[in-house]
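quick one, 129 residues, struct below
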Amino acid sequence: MVVADKILNRKGVIAILRGIWLEEVVTCLRELRVNRYCLSFNSEVLMQRALDDRPWSVMKGCLILQRWGEGLTIEELDFTKVVFWAQIHNLPLEMMTRNNAEKIGGKIGRLLEVEDPMKIRGGEDVSLE
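---
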């Protein structure tokens, strides 16, 4: 699903998605409803890589990838959560700690991951859902 404040051009969205995932990776790509697309990945490994590499954006909209379980209808899929990352800038050096990143991330949403502050330039990166 692409969360956007307008109806996106179907051909444009498909072209962008094809630019991200070639036909060898996503064997079937089609629009199901307005701003809702079905992507069939060639393998579980490739699908998991796409899920792990989130967040994705398309035409300034947020692309929410969701595993479609067998026997579920599109109405039964949960598109209410999205994974995104946040980068905190201009923290004093002594405040750039894993503990502070976890505190900040926990205020925004459910914290999934915190990158090592010693490997980051200029701020903390946190992945949230």
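The two ends are 16 Å apart (CA to CA).
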